[in-house]
Amino acid sequence: MSGNIYNSRTMKNGFLGFDASFMLDFVVSALVLIVPILLYSLYVVKVQKNFTLHRNLQIVLGVVLLVAVAAFEIDTQLVHGGWENIVNKNPDEPRLTGAAYLSVQRILRFHLIFAITTPFLWVITLVYALRKFPNPPQPGVHSKLHSTLGWLSVIDIVMTSVTGLWFYYAAFVA
Ligand code: HEM
Fold it and tell me: Which atom in ligand 1 lies closest to the alpha carbon of residue 138?
């Protein structure tokens, strides 16, 4: 497949300047961008009481997250055959071996606790909110449960982002 754009050096190694992959750089960028938008959505709902804008922002964030993660997983698992093949893409000069490899693998497992639970929690929070709040959204009987689900979803996505960046740093930058 020489000569196609995917295999050009930049795309193969990502665009952040490290030895990763295009989709890894894409998903890392998405995880970083999501946090300020999420903070804005919380400001909008808690301070401005603009429940409709909060709903719309959360739906967009949820869809962007789902698309980014699905594309990332397809690329990492099906195209590359696992993260090991991205981090050690050059078998003659592997980036990570022995204790360093095991340490990054531990960080990845920790990251996966949050990364796997987040989409489930987000879907539950979104679906419940859309069904139980009136339209246009207003505080009501669903507020208490939504507050619990909402804050758990916020913590989960922030932990996904922080541990994801930690993995990226350990695997491709350090
Ligand atoms: C994953 C998606 C969502 C997350 C993470 C989320 C998160 C939150 C958080 C943390 C709060 C503040 C709770 C508090 O401390 O009082 C909140 C409030 C609120 N959210 Fe969401 N939200 C999401 C989706 C939605 C959707 C789709 C709707 C509307 C259909 C909605 C409507 C509201 C309303 C009306 C409040 C104010 C509740 C009250 O003050 O009683 N949220 N949300």
Answer: 35
